[in-house]
Amino acid sequence: MRRGRILLWAAVATVVLVALGIVGTLWAGGRFGAAPTTAVAPTAGPTAEPIVDTSYTVLILNATPDAELGASVSADVIAAGWSANDVTVGDAGSQDFDETTVFYAAAEDEGAARGLAQAIGGANIEFSEAYEDGEGLKQLVIVLGLDRAADGSD
Length: 154
What we know:
The chain is an alpha/beta fold. The chain has two domains: 1-39; 57-151, Alpha-Beta Plaits (2-Layer Sandwich). It has four helices and five strands, in the order H-E-H-E-E-H-E-E-H. It has helices at 2-28, 69-79, 110-119, 146-151; strands at 57-62, 87-91, 101-104, 124-127, 139-144. It has a five-stranded mixed β-sheet with strand order 2-1-5-3-4. Helix 2 links the parallel strand 1 and strand 2. The protein is elongated and about 90 Å long. The protein starts with a helix and ends with a helix.
């Protein structure tokens, strides 16, 4: 009978410790508590006016199976005023990127990114530090998506 009590208390202690661990983890991760009752609608921040600023270098990453798409968009960028030396074309790490997007790495680059998007016939604009070069080079990155390859617009 004594052995049964010890096992019972050990089981109760285990359940309590596991429950405290789960609650502690949820609390530390900010997931503990009632869900918000009202949803907050995102507010659109101010957008910069599109400008064609050829002082930026342009990296074009083709994320589609269409091998010729990068060269075609490169020609559009050069026709918009960029020097051929400032435009680089390469392949992205995958071939399944959905929508063509111009990425910029600093808030002051947004207007130039919008201008570049217009110069290539339209694209999404997105802020991302992922393409920041770390050397202070003013660079915009175009990732070509399946939307561009599918409908043939470049």
